[in-house]
Specification:
The complex is a heterodimer of chains A (382) and B (683). With 382 residues, chain A is mostly helical. Chain A has one domain. In chain A, 71% of the residues lie in helices and 3% in strands. Chain A has 16 helices and 3 strands. A 3-stranded antiparallel sheet of chain A has the order 1-2-3, with helices on one face. In chain A, a hairpin with a 2-residue loop joins strand 2 and strand 3. Chain A is globular. The termini of chain A are close together. Chain B is of the alpha+beta class and 683 residues long. Among the domains of chain B are: 58-163 and 272-298, Penicillin-binding protein 2a (Domain 2) (Alpha-Beta Complex); 303-341 and 369-667, 3-Layer(aba) Sandwich (Beta-lactamase). Helices cover 42% and strands 17% of the residues of chain B. In chain B, the strands form 7 sheets. In chain B, strands 2, 3, 4, 5, 12 and 19 form a 6-stranded mixed sheet that branches. In chain B, helix 17 packs across helix 20 (446-456). Chain B is elongated. The chains are: A mainly alpha (382), B alpha+beta (683). At the A-B interface, helix 8, helix 12, helix 13, helix 14 and helix 15 of A face helix 1 and helix 2 of B.
Chain lengths: 382, 683
């Protein structure tokens, strides 16, 4: 540790100036859009009146977390990669053993007054671990298949535990971002293809033997609405149908801020959390939804650019993994809201109300920034 | 560094591939958004509108009832109202507590609301307060959005701006009872079909609270009637939905009941924007679904004359009927005291209702139409006419009156103890000599007298289009055999000769009698509906009367008010300078005067309990030389016709002449615009 401190020749204040401010500005803009939409989504419901304020406060806190993460030298993150992964994994086992059940799933650990959700930390910890793994192993091995077997293990072990909670969304997120890292690390395309084929082929098996009843229902509903069959309009089917009506009725320019009948009249369950996009779509139309998608694409592209411009493998993998994690959330959430994927609880980063995903997004982009600050550091000393 | 260099190209290549994949996915999402928001926009916009718009039954605005000059007698008033839907509000008593912080809502009222709420379905609103003051309405409108299930709205209520003045004529509206709904559904169904549904069966069918299964079973056990029963079930449902609406009222008596179909209109719908929980957010334009308001109904009455007449009665109870002699239009149709129909619209409390029911002045009773009284001496023109028709006396023949008349073993008395001396027909009417009329009644016999009475319109009722209407009694032998199982005694004829005994008549009949005398025998059909559902022309039992005889009666009535010896000399002057009125006094005996009392001196009115005092009557027309108005007035327990009834009649007639109450009504033009409807009162 002493060495890492010695390595630093610049002060933190200088680091602050060298942060990728364009990226940060775009992220902040997206957060502000989120608060505005949240205000519209909640303002007719007196019980939800304080949510936008809460969200704004949390965003402020998340912003500070992001800067703090960014200013921790990448070297420190490198050193903490394994301890973080191992301890988070340990926490997941604790959840399995002593976890608190809430909302039908056993996801939380009660530590004094604080309830923590280790599966959220695992997304970042896994990225760090995989990056550290590949950073080290690339020097020893020439990149054969065996190189990727331990990496696959790193992904699967926590994924299985999280799936058992059950938390389908986070499991998918782990596989998606981990898979991307494996792909970037040079896993044979043949293997990737066969895994995809296997995965698709095993869907009926997963459906029959792995999924819980409520998850099966969601898939049923999803297939029904996708193929245009009449769906059970009471639960999930109702939600998707109402979401489509909200989005579709927004048209090109929308009904105007706080003028959406679907949104203001509470027709869409979870419209302030997972289904926040429906409010944007209804009140501001196609131009706004496309605009938000493009801003997100730009943010992700900027993150990826940082990965490409970084010298150290660790930095490259960390930045790419962080971008992949956030990208997964965005793509999955929007596809879900648009009726292209089953309804699985995946929030839309920075727009949906809720603190958990915000931590993931803040640490992810904090790491990207930290990578940016250390883009010329090969991390060879370690 | 070197190891990184090996990896860089592949990492970069693959990163760009991944980015490309991501871009494709983003593109796919945008394509999907394009599909939903641009291509299918209209479909979803329709769905969104459909979603949030609910149709709510909109009851029609009930037609107004107006007097002949277009003054409003029954109208509607919009007032603020609070109602609560228990299903949405949660704990109702807590909500009422909260509301009582803002408006006055006494404990008992809260209890009544709670018990009412228990009796109905939770999704039906209970009304917490109506007729809100402006301040209360504003205050509650402000709070309601924070109180789920609480509705503050403007509602239309039937109102009777002239309160008591037309209570008996108009009747009132109130919430329809289940019986009422049944009757309406039953009549609606049967009037539209050739095959009639049996009423007992329909009653049985609607009487049971039926599940779908029970209903089906009922159809099965009545296979022949199943189709009709099914149709009845649907009709009943429609009628009940409308009539049970919280803003809907149905006519319960009077014109409001008889003209229900005419006044009601047709229900429509309101488009309401509701949220997912069903809470109403606002009302959207719904002109195309608007209810059709009921039609306005015009009466022939003059509301100001009616009011004048009621005020003139003061605290007395009684009735007055003013007729236009040319048209038969009823210009005033007064029964006093009366109730305020406004009290009935939203339901009257039992205590208030009992007060009306048990009052010794019978405010619920339509004395002018349903009240039957012995006509007393006002009947003497009929007796005289009957005598002339029968030819049993020459009008100039003199009869001697010494105050007593002996027949069989009994003695009848003249009202004037010392007698009238020698009287002919004219002076007998003028001085109301009872002995003269005992004599001619005895000479002609009851059958002759009864026949003429019927020619005048006694013993029959006119359907005016209101509820009620009594015929009174014109007794004869056949009637007595049927009613009492005894034959007629000749002595009773003497009582009928002075308008007493079993004879009874309504104030309306007396007014028609007077009008027919004034019109010198022409038939007169009284009517009160100017424009509206007129009752079918019934075949009246009255006949045209001989003109010369009627002129003789007029002369007698003029004598009463204008010649020396007339019993109502003081009432003759209308106070309008020229014209006088002609009339006839009457006193209807309520109790029998015993021989002992007659010996010791008949008790004065003040010495007798009010309920036993005589009724005072007066019939008249004016002006005497060109009759336009006929009137009958009865003052219950008012003692002497000349003392209490005549001044009231005089003042009402004078007012009618002053105001020209019979001038052409406003609705004549309206009638001209509505072809096919039988013409208004104008002739």
């Amino acid at each position: 540790m002493a060495g890492s401190l010695n390595f630093r020749s610049r002060t933190r204040v200088q680091d602050l100036g060298r942060l990728p401010w364009g990226l940060i500005l775009l992220i902040s803009a997206m957060a502000l859009i989120g608060v505005a939409i949240l205000y519209s989504a909640t303002y007719t419901n007196p019980r939800e009146a304080d949510l936008p304020m809460k969200q704004a406060v949390r965003l402020g806190a998340a912003f500070i977390v992001m800067l703090a993460v960014a200013l921790v030298p990448l070297k420190v993150w490198f050193q903490m990669a394994w301890p973080a992964y191992v301890s988070t994994f340990f926490l997941l086992i604790c959840v399995e053993l002593f976890g608190v059940t809430g909302g039908g799933a056993q996801r939380w650990l009660q530590v004094g007054p604080i309830a923590i959700q280790p599966s959220e930390f695992m997304k970042v910890a896994l990225t760090l671990a995989l990056a550290a793994y590949y950073h080290k192993r690339w020097r020893d091995e020439s990149g054969g298949f065996l190189l990727h077997v331990p990496a696959l293990g790193l992904i699967c072990l926590p994924a299985i535990l999280i799936f058992k909670q059950p938390d389908f969304g986070t499991t998918l997120a782990l596989f998606a971002s981990g898979g991307i890292l494996l792909f970037l690390a040079g896993l044979y395309k043949r293997i990737i293809l066969s895994v995809i084929v296997l995965g698709v082929g095993s869907i009926p098996l997963v459906y029959s033997f792995v999924l819980q009843d409520y998850q099966r229902e969601r898939v049923d509903t999803f297939v029904a609405q996708l193929t245009g069959q009449s769906v059970n309009l009471i639960d999930d089917g109702y939600q998707i149908e109402q979401a489509k009506i909200a989005i579709g009725s927004g048209g090109l320019t929308g009904k105007g801020y706080m003028e959406g009948t679907q949104a203001q009249l509470d027709y869409i369950p979870e419209q302030h959390t997972d289904f926040i996009l429906t409010v944007l779509a209804e009140e501001f139309g196609f131009l706004a939804t496309t605009g938000v998608l493009l801003i997100w694409a730009l943010i992700l592209a900027l993150g990826l650019m940082i990965a490409l411009r970084t010298t150290s493998l660790f930095g490259r993998f960390v930045a790419a993994g962080a971008v992949a994690t956030v990208a997964f959330y965005i793509l999955f959430n929007i596809a879900m809201v648009l009726g292209l994927l089953p309804v699985v609880g995946v929030p839309l980063p920075l727009l949906s109300y809720g603190g958990t995903v915000m931590i993931t997004v803040a640490t992810s982009f904090g790491l990207v920034c930290s990578v940016h600050l250390a883009k010329d550091d090969p991390l060879q000393a370690l | 560094m070197s190891s990184n260099r090996q990896v860089d190209p592949m990492f970069n290549r693959r990163a760009i591939m991944a980015a490309g994949g991501g871009a494709l996915l983003f593109g796919g999402l945008i394509a999907r958004l394009f599909q939903l928001q641009i291509l299918n926009r209209e479909k979803y916009q329709l769905a969104a509108a459909d979603n949030s718009v609910k149709l709510e039954l909109a009851p029609p605005q009930r037609g107004q009832i107006l007097d002949r000059f277009g003054r409003s007698l029954a109208s509607h008033r919009r007032a603020g109202r609070i109602s609560v839907v228990p299903e949405q509000s949660g704990d109702l008593s807590a909500v009422l507590q909260k509301i009582s912080q803002y408006i006055d809502l006494p404990r008992e009222r809260q209890d009544r609301i709670l018990s009412q709420a228990r009796r109905q379905a939770a999704f039906q609103p209970v009304i917490v307060a109506r007729e809100l003051s402006y301040e209360d309405f504003a205050r509650m409108s402000l709070r309601a959005p924070q109180m789920p299930g609480v509705l503050v709205e403007m509602a239309s209520t039937r109102s009777y701006p002239r309160g008591r003045d037309f209570a008996h004529v108009l009747g009132y509206v109130s919430r329809a009872s289940n019986d009422y709904i049944f009757r309406e559904a039953f009549n609606t169904l049967n009037s539209s079909r050739d095959r009639k549904l049996d009423e007992a069966l329909a009653k049985e069918f609607s009487g049971i609270r039926m599940s779908r299964q029970l209903r089906q079973d009922f159809f099965l056990t009545h296979p022949d009637e199943a189709g009709l029963l099914r149709a009845f079930h649907d009709t009943y449902g429609d009628v009940a939905t409308l009539l049970k609406h919280r803003d809907m009222r149905a006519g319960r008596s009077g014109i409001e009941l008889r003209a229900e179909a005419y006044l009601r209109g047709k229900s429509g719908f309101r488009r309401l924007e509701t949220n997912a929980a069903g809470r109403i957010i606002r009302e959207l334009p719904s002109e195309d679904l608007a209810p059709v308001p009921g039609r306005d109904l015009y009466l022939t009455v003059d509301a100001e004359l009616q009011k004048f007449a009621i005020d003139r009665f003061g605290g007395e109870s009684g009735a007055a009927v003013v007729l236009d002699i040319d048209t038969g239009d009823l210009l005033a149709f007064v029964s006093t005291p009366a109730f305020d129909p406004n009290d009935f619209v939203n339901g009257i409390s039992q205590a208030d209702y009992d007060k009306l029911r048990f009052s010794d002045r019978y405010p619920l009773y339509h004395k002018a139409y349903d009240g039957t009284y012995p006509p007393g001496s006002t009947f003497k023109m009929v007796v005289a006419t009957a005598a002339l028709e029968a030819g049993i006396i020459d009008p100039e023949e003199r009869v001697h009156c010494n105050g007593r008349y002996h027949f069989g073993n009994n003695t009848w008395h003249c009202w004037r103890r010392q007698g009238h001396g020698s009287v002919n027909m004219h002076s007998a009417i003028k001085g109301s000599c009872d002995v003269y009329f005992y004599e001619i009644a005895r000479r002609m016999g009851i059958e002759t007298l009864a026949e003429t009475a019927k020619e005048f319109g006694f013993g029959q009722s006119w359907d005016l289009g209101l509820t009620g209407g009594r015929q009174g009694v014109v007794p004869n032998n056949a009637w007595k055999l049927e009613a009492q199982g005894e034959p007629w005694y000749e002595g009773e004829t003497l009582n009928i000769g002075i308008g007493q005994g079993q004879l009874s008549a309504t104030p309306l009949q007396l007014a028609v009698m007077t009008a027919r005398i004034a019109a010198e025998g022409r038939l007169i059909n009284p009517q009160i509906i100017g424009i509206g559902p007129k009752p079918g022309a019934d075949i009246p039992g009255d006949k045209p009367l001989d003109r010369a005889r009627m002129q003789r009666m007029k002369a007698g009535m003029f004598g009463v008010t204008s010649e020396a010896g007339g019993t109502a000399l003081r009432a003759g002057d209308l106070g309008l300078g020229g014209p006088r009125l002609a009339g006839k006094t009457g006193t209807a005996q309520v109790r029998r005067i015993s021989a002992a009392e007659r010996r010791s001196g008949i008790l004065k009115g003040e010495e007798i309990d009010r309920r036993l005092r005589d009724h005072a009557l007066f019939v008249a027309y004016a002006p005497h030389d060109d009759p336009k108005y006929a009137i009958s007035v009865i003052v219950e327990h008012g003692e002497g016709g000349s003392r209490t009834a005549a001044p009231i009649a005089r003042d009402i007639l004078a007012e009618a002449l002053r105001q020209d109450s019979r001038r052409a009504p406003n609705y004549v033009q309206t009638a001209a615009l509505a072809p096919g409807r039988s013409g208004g009162g104008g002739s």
